[in-house]
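User: Okay, second chain of the day. Same drill as before: sequence in, structure tokens out.
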Amino acid sequence: MPNYNMRGVQFLTDNEGNKTAAIVDLKEHSEFWVDVLAECGEPIDFQFLVDGEGEKIAVVLEFEKHGELWEDVYDSLTIESRKDEPRVPWEEVKRQLEKKGMLNV
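Assistant: Same drill. Structure tokens below.
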């Protein structure tokens, strides 16, 4: 997994430094979490961090249990973080790949 700095996400690691889970800030990513709940219903196997009033403020996504969901979260966050990057037309990308021998036409 690339090491992007993802706003509103922190990682848990094991004693060898391997990422094992992500903590997703629900205030930062509330719209995404609403979509998750709409798709899968109220989750019962997630761990949450709560504030002093008992409000859920973050969800812990364990990669072993929630790997598929994490992939969706990761993709969505990556897309969101890159939305303002300049676009490169497909023809230019194609030319560059052909020049590097990475695309055979």
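Helices lie at 30-40, 63-81, 90-99.

User: Thanks, on to the next one.
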